[in-house]
Amino acid sequence: MSTPARKRLMSDFKRLRKDPVAGINGVPNDNNIMLWNAVIFGPDDSPWDGGTFKLTMQFTEEYPNKPPTVRFVSRMFHPNIYADGSICLDILQNQWSPIYDVAAVLTSIQSLLCDPNPNSPANSEAAHLFSGSKREYNRKVREIVEQSWTAD
């Protein structure tokens, strides 16, 4: 069954394969194009450098008019990421636009790693440390990066 959402996801996938974006990767599940597995690499020269973070992206038949549900599978410590891995990011909520594709979503999440919004915290401890004790925040981030190397 080829719906507009599925056609758009095939197009997003072809574009990602043809023009890969440094630091991100996403592929549809073998038997379900509406469910993707993605990886974001921690940006260079940041506390996240060297990290490999896994995510899932769940799309509905309303994509691209509605955003996907994106969650980190990897354990995270970040002001805008909830304990369950869900992400507090405006383009995944009220600032969504159909012009965003899979690459744009993943790139935005990668940018969020280094540029959190501590005023809208999903993780109050991370937001508090980010604002008050950058050294301790960065130490905790490095722990998460090291865990990302050995996690499934």
Automatic annotation (TrEMBL):
CDD domains: UBCc_UBE2A_2B. SUPFAM superfamilies: UBC-like. The keyword DNA repair does not apply. One of its GO terms (biological process) is ubiquitin-dependent protein catabolic process. Its EC number is 2.3.2.23. Belongs to the ubiquitin-conjugating enzyme family. This is E2 ubiquitin-conjugating enzyme. It comes from Papaver nudicaule.
